[in-house]
Amino acid sequence: MADGGQNVALKTAPHVPYSEELAMEICRAIATTPKGLPYICATREGFPHPDTVYEWLFLYPEFEAAYDRAKQCVTHALLDECQTIADNDDEDCLLVRRNDGQEVRTLNREFVQRSELMVKTRMQMIEKLHPKKFGRRLDLDTTIGIRHEDALAMLR
């Protein structure tokens, strides 16, 4: 579970009835934190189990639309996380004691690779959540060096 390294036990709370107020509170939470729905539901008082929220997506079209907008908004929080991760160089280097007793600084490849994976994962999420704004685009603005007359001649 992607919960920021914290294990969060999912609630087995009784069924929570749908209300527009609770649905909008859930959407606000989704829009403002890069954590997943299981984490959000487990850590917020009064929030239903994630399965209930998923059920509401099928039952209430207005909630589905608000939920989709909230997921698009979270891309900004994910972008901020990417910048924080990329800027964090606290553990990029390690002090290693050589056989002769001298300490040398060396690259902490594990930390650097983990940071790279974290940024790439978030970027993939961002592309999926908001493809129109952050998705990969095809460059369709190309020019073809054929004159109109030549193209007509080829068709004949």
CATH topology: Arc Repressor Mutant, subunit A
Please estimate the helix content. 55-70%
What portion of the residues fall into strands of 2 or more residues? 5-15%
Q: What structural class should be given to the helix and strand makeup?
A: mainly alpha
Q: Report the radius of gyration as a whole number of Å.
A: 24 Å
- For the record, what CATH class applies? Mainly Alpha
Report the strand count: 2
| Helix and strand run | HHHHEEHHH
Indicate the low-confidence ranges by residue numbers: none
Q: So how many helices?
A: 7
How many structural domains are formed by the residues? Answer: 1
Anisotropy-based shape: flat
User: What distance lies between the first and last C-alpha atoms, to the nearest angstrom?
Assistant: 63 Å
Spatial strand arrangement across the major sheet: 1-2
Q: Overall mean pLDDT score? A: 85
* CATH H-level superfamily: Homeodomain-like
Largest sheet: 2 strands, antiparallel
Query: Per CATH, which architecture?
Result: Orthogonal Bundle
Tell me briefly what this model is.
This protein is mostly helical. The protein has seven helices and two strands, in the order H-H-H-H-E-E-H-H-H.
